[in-house]
Amino acid sequence: MRLYQFLDAMPIGVFVATPDGRPAYANDEAERVLGQGVVPTIDAHDLAETCNTFVTGTDRLYPTESLPIVLASQGQSSHRLDMEIHQQDGDVIPLEVWGRPVCGAGGEVDYSLAVFADVSERHAREKTLAEQAALLDLAHDAILVRDQDSRIVYWNAGAEHLYGYTRAEALGRVSYEILRTRVPAPV
User: Fold this and answer.
1) Which of 19, 116, 10 is nearest to 70 (CA)?
2) Phi-psi sector, 4: left (phi>0), alpha (psi -120 to 50), beta
3) What is the mean pLDDT of residues 122-141?
4) Largest Cα–Cα distance of the chain, in whole Å?
């Protein structure tokens, strides 16, 4: 079926379960992340253990009642940022997960859907940015960064010392208002 080809081409995992929590479909990305395809003999109570789904940064299995696919089977939509998959080879994949119910004409849940993205690259970029910001914070010089609207988005310790505003006081403020400066528009 053409729909399955589209789903398999997506870089996002798609996992579908029946109302009782039994897996019905997993696309290629879901199989890559979960380390397996559909295991029809399990139900919702076994999903976290079968798929090695943990609370981020811990060795605790993700609580079954909070799994997006389980919430979807109960008719609830959800979004989670605190899940990770521990793969057999030792890799840990952090996930962003959305759960949605798929309801029939009468309003009953026909299927539950979990869609998830591997956010490993995003976490790596965020870590790099945090490390770079920490280095900038060590500078004695005042360093501030403004967005296109001249709002301050970064304020280091040197800027705190020189201008007397804490980071919390400065972030989000318009730079020329807080610094009492106005640069003329270029001709």
Assistant:
1) 19
2) alpha
3) 88
4) 71
Q: What is the pTM of this model?
A: 0.70
Q: What percent of the chain has pLDDT over 90?
A: 58
Amino acid at 63: P
**Partners of residue 152 on adjacent β-strands:** 146
Beta-strand relationship, 144-146 and 152-155? antiparallel
CA distances to 35, 182 from 185, in Å:
57, 9
**Is the model's pLDDT at 161 over the cut of 70?**
yes
Phi, psi of 148 (to 5 degrees): -65, -20
CA distance 68 to 59: 19
Residue pair 167/160 in contact (Cβ under 8 Å)? The answer is: yes
Please give the residue that has the higher pLDDT: either 177 or 76. 76
Whether 84 shows a pLDDT value over 80: the answer reads yes
Around Cβ 50, how many Cβ atoms within 10 Å?
16
Measured between its terminal Cα atoms, the distance across the chain in Å is 60
